[in-house]
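Why does this matter for the project? Reviewers at the last site visit asked to see concrete outputs rather than summary tables. In response, this paragraph embeds two records directly. Each consists of the residue sequence and, immediately after it, the corresponding structure tokens. Nothing has been edited or filtered.
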Amino acid sequence: MSKNFIEELRWRGMLQDLMPGTEELLQKEQVTAYVGIDPTADSLHIGHLVSIMMLKHLQECGHKPLALVGGATGMIGDPSGKSNERVLLNEETLSHNVACIKKQLSKFLDFDSDAPNAAELVNNYDWMKDVTFLSFIRDIGKHITVNYMMAKDSVKKRFSGEAGTDGMSFTEFTYQLVQGNDFLHLLQTKNCKLQMGGSDQWGNITTGTELIRRITGKEAFGLTCPLITKADGGKFGKTESGNVWLDPEKTSPYKFYQFWLNCSDADSARYIRIFTLMSREEIEAIEQEHAQAPHLRALQKALAKDLTIRVHSQKDYEMAVEASEILFGKSTTESLRKLDTATFLSVFEGVPCSETSIDTFDGNTSLIDLLSEKTGIFASKSEVRRALKENSLSINKEKASEQTPVNKDMLLNGAYVLVQKGKKNYFLIHVTGA
């Protein structure tokens, strides 16, 4: 093997629990390992990235990764770390979600090569759809005692109604058996000996290894990574508007880039190890550079660049950098015109917006009328004149004068005008009927 997988996880801060014998197994042979991904949405979010990076490092170290999407388990819902039962999905929604997830995973994992350790996507619906309830409780259920299942933390908390939970349904109680059955199936069909996941999955993973031992007499292994938190104790991957998604329709590349760029120094130092493939030497060099001039945010910029290119593209990264410059640096009308509508609106989200019709831009309206009567950005014409006199007014990042023509050439993306008063006060004009 080229690199020691466990050692790689260890120095990156990605190792929490490890079953005895796991490291020895990985050094002895090429190991097939899997991570389960819940397909409750048609996009992954950055909370999934830790598991994906575990699979990526596994493949880089010469082992074979399996990404298991829980088409069947997604119909039940995993109680681990949850206080209430989740909404169940239908078959059509699940198959759509699975297809979208595979597309995103292929940006990280090599599915297409003919190498013996090419990644595979498996869906537990494929082997669970024909299993009857009677055969499941006969073939699987009889091997694990209720006492064993009750001892798991995720079950204990829900069962006792702790922390405002509403108890636990039979459906959820059996979840660990269904997940254990996945591990058993993958061991029997793909010689998969290792299951990985977040530390909240430890109970489910150990149920799987116990089930395998009791049914086959074989040994199976498990390891987990820590659940990622922020240095201030806040939840990782959540913003005011919710999850940070990998799908550009749900979270624009600009917002995705900004999320990593705005991480604290302490978080960036951890995240750059977990979420990039940079070597220890490369990371330490960036940390030294950062320590010498923290205000330049070398760590955050390296992290944001690496992930934006990997998840989106080089072009999306360049647009995100250019968009960031618009608010925080110097930029021009030309750089504004390069932005697509989604990025433009992401940058100016929350900026006061006025509407006016395309007729205003027929060449007969003065700039003073546009900014006062037509849009109400200024309370009066005299206020506009004062701002022009003070040279503090810009249209689309260019200094304006009374003679600035108001015509269709002014429109950005055919529908917007950016007005700036002083350094920090922005206003948008949305032009309807264009």
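We now turn to the second protein, recorded in exactly the same manner.
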Amino acid sequence: MKKQMIALCLAILLSVLALAACSAQEEKADEIVFGIAQDLDDDLDPHKMISAGTKEIMFNVFEGLLKPTTEGELAPALCESYEISADRLSYTFKIRQGVKFHNGSPLTADDVVYSLLRLRDEGLNAGFAIVASVEKTDESTVVIKLSEPSVEFPTYLTAAIIPADYKEQSSKPVGTGPFKFISREAQENIVLERFDDYWGEKAGVQKVTLKIIENADSLILSLQSGAVDVASHLTAAQIAQLGDGFTAETDTMKLVQALYLNNAVKPFDDIRVRQALCYAIDKYEIINTVFGGYGSPIGSSMYPAFSKYFLPELTDYYTHDAQKAKALLSEAGYPDGFSMTITVPSNYQPHIDTATVIVKQLKEVGINAELRLVEWASWLEDVYGNRDFESTVVGFDASQMTARALLERFTSTHKRDFINYSSETYDELFARAMVTYDDLEQTEIYKAMERELTENAANVYIQDIADMVAVRKGISGVRFYPIDVIDLSGLHFES
């Protein structure tokens, strides 16, 4: 009798465990864990975000009147259609009907007016400085009038539309996107859930947990153990460690990776020193050894996906030449080289690996470079904010599909000119670009600005990094864009 009771208890226990396992599998089957290298250490208000890492994730939560497509076009999002007047001074939008915010309130023309005027009146987006007025002409129509025409203005209309009467965007953001924000645990995770009332195509999974893993080795271990399903911005070496359980989707990160130099501190205030570094560093060795040959070499502050503006002839403006580098250093008064520090955020393995190769290459011309790893928050405050650094390896994206987004930061009065680049010619070119109404003329001015950065060796330009995304087998739907975003809505489990 006792044995029968034990057998019965074991049978019941096994049944319970089996049911629990099935339940866990079913729950997991509609949830994806996505590993990211940094916390959203930024204001979550979409109009106040600064960090590219925050923007690429919150792309899933917010939408504008227009949104970028994977082909690099602008498509209607929160508008059904729009018209631009012949003089390009008036934009008329028909607001999409039936759209809901994540808090359940309906999208109205008043929300659109509020959002666009906020961007202008609070100085939150430089592109809205030319907005003369935003008016609701009826419940489904909004008219924007500009003080002057702008060929770039439509790209700024990807800016998020938010509810006018909601005041907690900084901590509990509410948008209209395919995912809604659920929670955020500092340095741990961000949880998003599918918005079932989304006006467009519904997201492929019910829940995405973005797990913050700043240590590169820990991220790989989490993928291997099954704790993480997908991770982006990996190197070829990291992908190779994962084995057969993953597929690798490859594109580029749509950013400008460079050894950024503080032009205001010695010895980088001397153009000959900066040019010497350009000759000393072999970008092709970096791409081949660190990124397995993937990645697109660049020679200025523009990446190839912006084909309209990209100048391929600048890619090899400085060919690897150690003797030229040594000659320029000697001419500048550093015949025996010098010591320098390269400050790199510790949560970005691709930049760490790049900087490691750079240290070796610089040693060959007599420069003793020391690699200094810092936490992301420290990098933002000290390097980017206070400009307290000598050099750094990072990447900058466009955030919007405009050349201006990549080039304006190097004008001498810009608050984000963290390299302290100062050139009257460059400033004058940018001022001309802002007042021209001709797209071809503006494009040529932007190209001239790129040449200026290259010729003056403002930075040592390396590549648009290969964006290698590890995806657990059985999951599909990775999408790439001409700007750096992570689109979670297409991810789904294969049937």
